[in-house]
Amino acid sequence: MAESLLGTAFYKTVLSVREYAAGIWQGVSQAGSAKQEQPMTNCLTEVDLMVLSGRLQDVLDRELLYLNPELTPECLAAHAQMTVCQLAEVLMRGICKPFDRLLAEYRIEAMKVLLKNPKMAEMNLFLLAHECGFASRKAFKKAFVEYTGQTLEAYKESLAGSGKALIL
């Protein structure tokens, strides 16, 4: 239960940072009909943003945390030695991707490397997807299509044409 509450808190933080990245904070008046725009202040300087963005990418590349299907923003922030709020700002302003999208991209790239290895051709595709950090088939399929622009079947055919074989 606590994990889902933390996820909700992070989601709200990401929404706040996303609104900042757009350059405005939009609020609804008490009547609920009129919107007000107020600029938000920067929490991180541009230098801090660059440093923390680099640190985050180094941690992801070095520690391969994205391979854990249960990776949370809190865990990633702790490994990167930053707060969850700093992580949210780095994701939205520095890397320009939400948490889930960033992880999906790293996971799909890991999957593509595995699929090009002839020794992996005998393994079940969804077993490999789980090893790359995807918790479900649905999440994997959706991320795969969004990131590669191809369905699994189309990707399978493109690898088959180059001598690779996959088991769906």
Oligomer kind: single chain
- Structural class of the helices, strands and pairings? mainly alpha
- What is the approximate shape? elongated
Q: How many distinct helices? A: 8
* SSE series: HEEHHHHHHH
For the termini, the CA-CA separation is 35 Å
Q: Describe the biggest sheet?
A: 2 strands, antiparallel
Beta percentage is under 5%
Number of strands: 2
Adjacency order of strands in the biggest sheet: 1-2
Instruction: Please estimate the helix content.
Output: 55-70%
* Uncertain stretches of 5 or more adjacent residues: 1-41
- Radius of gyration over C-alpha positions, nearest whole angstrom: 19 Å
**Mean pLDDT, all residues:** 75
List the helices and strands and how they pair.
Blueprint: H1 2-21, E1 25-28, E2 35-38, H2 46-63, H3 73-79, H4 84-95, H5 99-115, H6 125-131, H7 137-148, H8 152-161
Antiparallel strand pairs: 1-2
Concise structural overview:
With 168 residues, the protein is mainly α. The protein has 8 helices and 2 strands.
